[in-house]
């Protein structure tokens, strides 16, 4: 007789809970900082009445976001602790497995951080004779994102220790340092100079992306754009009566191309009115030099406005979805009998549901700006008291995506635990296993992991009699994808295979879809940041760290540009987004009422939960 998930599966669930817990915790820290700044701005009581009301509304929205994240964090923390401390008895299936037991835990060590390559980084001092100094605005850089960085190369500037630089630098001359032909380090001023075009020079696109992505660790985007504008005006004498008109026209065209790339790749930077002001000023100067550029400037502005309008529309949709989910949860509390529908009634086909999950995943991916990874998770030395609201992250797309994973996991557990009859619970488990398998075939690894995480929640795994009715063959195959051994090596191999498949697929084809396990992707970026120094011993910025971060995020940029080719099922989408999700206590209560407690711990927990429920209903 087949039993509930085995000890390896429970440990695999623990590792996923650990990753989700860590990412959610870091989001809470970042959003708490924003709440503090909002509170400080409100206490100042400056500005007009309308601006004060706007800040108050934003403050309330921020509190609601933190409340949701805190709720999810607490549930994940409880699940992680219970799995880690072995509070629940492990149920072993009577099946032979050729796989080794997982042994890697997200909380295994606190002092030593693994790199994105799954090994500890080693200190390696580069040879002095492989370096050369160069002035900015030199020839284009190699396309470093097309080749995978070898671990030995990646560890040079990312060894957790400052690199030893012994050469003399003239502080009066901003310089860039190259190593083996690749940009290695330099001063902030030199990097800014290097991104500014000239009449006969345009910066390499890979350099532009890497610098615009990571520069916000050292300089605010509006300050960077201001500095770029000043370099342009000083260098090309824009606005001067004795300017060379022909050379200025050539320069203005290249500068406009730079601004187009910035607004297309990092449009959310321009939610800041200071950015828009600088953008309008510099484009007006370009038009003054060459009237034929007026059309190009107009197209730039229109495209930027469309992107920002799309973001606002998406944020409005998210707000309404959250409100609808809250309302349905309130209706469930006041009238439990009204909650009779399950996911199979709404969407009988596991394949169709996997398609709808892919719609949600791709929509959320598409709206995440690349800069959000830097703004949300990478450490930046700053004085909280000196922070202004204008300088904080202006989007919540990354947070919304992490929330979605947590919601899907608990929706799966809710759908299983809410049924009194054992055969219905078993049917739901097998249904979700089929959905997870279809997600795997599609390349939707995030939904796959969320579903498997939901099936590994303790209120579900303890249902031994229910699992005894489930065919476990397909579950075991999917279980293998969750194996955390070797830093989730099995999953990473599947992800690489999906990426290779996508390379050969035509636009619009289903094979183009690659949706990573998002929280593990974020964890990789965070560990990369933790393992690499922002600055070298000589004070120069470590640009190899910029390259590696940009390489990781470039893959994400490819994934997010894919449009979902599947038809929409509005009823299924609405259910996935707004169906009530049980809290941790409600899941346990439903689980115990389905299959009674067996251990003393379970009996005590069940007794406590019933008392709490009775007290709440009085």
UniProtKB/TrEMBL annotation:
Keyword Transit peptide: no
Domain called Ras-GEF: residue spans: 349-597
Organism: Acanthaster planci
Basic and acidic residues compositional bias, start-end: 121-132
Classification via Pfam families: RasGEF, RasGEF_N
Sorted UniProt keywords: Guanine-nucleotide releasing factor
GO molecular function: guanyl-nucleotide exchange factor activity
Cellular compartments per GO CC: plasma membrane
Bias type Polar residues, positions: 152-164
GO annotation terms (biological process): Ras protein signal transduction
Lineage: Eukaryota, Metazoa, Echinodermata, Eleutherozoa, Asterozoa
Protein name, entry field: Ras-GEF domain-containing family member 1B-like isoform X3
Domain N-terminal Ras-GEF: residue ranges: 179-309
The UniProt record lists the keyword Cell membrane: no
């Amino acid at each position: 007789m087949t039993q509930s998930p085995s000890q390896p599966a429970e440990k695999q669930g623990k590792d996923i809970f650990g990753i989700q817990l860590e990412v959610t915790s870091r989001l809470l820290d970042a959003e708490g900082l924003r709440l503090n700044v909002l509170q400080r701005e409100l206490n100042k009581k400056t500005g007009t009445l309308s601006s004060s009301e706007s800040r108050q509304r934003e403050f309330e929205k921020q509190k609601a976001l933190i409340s949701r994240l805190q709720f999810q964090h607490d549930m994940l923390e409880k699940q992680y602790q219970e799995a880690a401390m072995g509070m629940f008895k492990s149920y072993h299936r009577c099946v032979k497995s050729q796989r080794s037991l997982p042994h890697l835990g997200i909380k295994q060590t606190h002092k030593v951080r693994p790199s994105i390559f799954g090994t500890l980084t080693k200190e390696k001092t580069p040879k002095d004779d492989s370096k050369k100094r160069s002035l900015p605005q030199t020839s284009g850089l190699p396309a470093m994102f097309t080749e995978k960085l070898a671990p030995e190369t990646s560890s040079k500037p990312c060894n957790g220790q400052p690199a030893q630089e012994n050469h003399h630098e003239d502080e009066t001359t901003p310089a860039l340092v190259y190593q083996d032909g690749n940009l290695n380090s330099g001063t902030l001023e030199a990097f800014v100079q290097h991104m500014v075009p000239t009449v006969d020079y345009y910066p390499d696109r890979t350099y532009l992306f890497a610098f615009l992505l990571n520069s916000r660790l050292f300089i605010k985007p509006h300050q960077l754009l201001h500095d770029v504008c000043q370099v342009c005006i000083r260098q090309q004498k824009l606005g001067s009566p004795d300017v060379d008109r022909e050379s200025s026209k050539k320069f203005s065209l290249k500068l406009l191309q730079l601004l187009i790339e910035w607004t297309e790749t990092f449009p959310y930077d321009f939610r800041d009115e200071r950015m828009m002001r600088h953008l309008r000023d510099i484009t007006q100067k370009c038009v003054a030099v060459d009237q034929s550029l007026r059309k190009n400037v107009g197209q730039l502005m229109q495209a930027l406005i469309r992107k920002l309008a799309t973001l606002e529309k998406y944020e409005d949709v998210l707000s309404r979805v959250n409100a609808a989910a809250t309302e349905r949860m309130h209706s469930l509390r006041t009238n439990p009998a009204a909650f009779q529908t399950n996911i199979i009634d709404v969407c009988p086909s596991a394949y169709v549901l996997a398609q709808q999950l892919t719609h949600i995943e791709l929509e959320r991916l598409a709206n995440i700006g690349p800069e959000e990874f830097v703004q949300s998770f990478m450490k930046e030395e700053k004085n909280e008291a000196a922070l202004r609201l204008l300088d904080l992250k202006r989007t919540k797309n990354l947070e919304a995506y992490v929330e979605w994973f947590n919601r899907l996991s608990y929706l799966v557990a809710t759908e299983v635990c809410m049924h009194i009859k054992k055969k219905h619970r078993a049917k739901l488990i097998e249904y979700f296993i089929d959905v997870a398998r279809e997600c795997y075939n599609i390349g939707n690894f995030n939904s796959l992991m969320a579903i498997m995480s939901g099936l590994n929640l303790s209120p579900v795994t303890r249902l031994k009699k229910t699992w005894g009715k489930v065919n476990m063959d397909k579950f075991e195959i999917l279980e293998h994808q969750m194996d955390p051994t070797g830093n989730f090596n099995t999953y990473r191999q599947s992800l690489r295979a999906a990426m290779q498949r996508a390379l050969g697929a035509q636009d619009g084809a289903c094979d183009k879809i690659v949706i990573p396990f998002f929280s593990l992707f974020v964890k990789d970026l965070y560990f990369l940041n933790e393992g690499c120094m922002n600055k070298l011993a000589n004070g120069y910025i470590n640009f190899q760290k910029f390259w590696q971060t940009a390489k990781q995020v470039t893959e994400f940029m490819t994934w997010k540009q894919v449009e979902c080719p599947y038809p929409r099922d509005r009823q299924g989408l609405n259910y996935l987004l707004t169906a009530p999700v049980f809290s941790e206590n409600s899941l346990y209560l439903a689980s115990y009422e389905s299959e009674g407690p067996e251990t003393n711990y379970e009996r005590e927990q069940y007794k406590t939960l019933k008392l709490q429920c009775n007290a709440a209903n009085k």
